[in-house]
Amino acid sequence: MARPGVATRRVRIGAWTEIMPFVVIYEGAHIGEHCLIGNHATVREGATVGDRCIIGQYACVSYDAELADEVRVQNGTLIADGWKIGRGTFIGVNVSTIRLNSISFTFG
């Protein structure tokens, strides 16, 4: 499913954040300071990643998801649209979250 582009949304990446090869960061994404984004990870439109977060290889932080500070998302994990992950949460390898219609989930 394609979403129309919004040309006015800027990407923000904080100081001392490391972005590994083949990462895709979409318009409107905000990534905090001192983060590490692993190889082949994806941060979608409107997603917010707090400070001191780690996003593993092949992980996806989907549309409008919010990760608080010090969140660890391990390799191959999908954080679905609109999820809010609390401070210091650790999410293991190959976890997939879902969003059902208008129901919103909060984890952490």
The percent range for helix content is: under 10%
Protein structure class: mainly beta
Strand order of the largest sheet: 1-4-7-10-13-15
| Secondary-structure element pattern, one letter each | EEEEEEEEEEEEEEE
How would you state the average pLDDT, rounded?
A: 90
Strand segment count: 15
- Morphology: globular
Structure characterization notes:
This protein has 108 residues and is mainly β. Helices cover 0% and strands 28% of the residues. It contains no helices and 15 strands. Strands 1-4-7-10-13-15 form a six-stranded parallel β-sheet, with no helix packed on it. Strands 2-5-8-11-14 form a five-stranded parallel β-sheet, with no helix packed on it. Strands 3-6-9-12 form a four-stranded parallel β-sheet, with no helix packed on it. It is globular. The N and C termini lie far apart (29 Å). The model has no long low-confidence stretch (mean pLDDT 90).
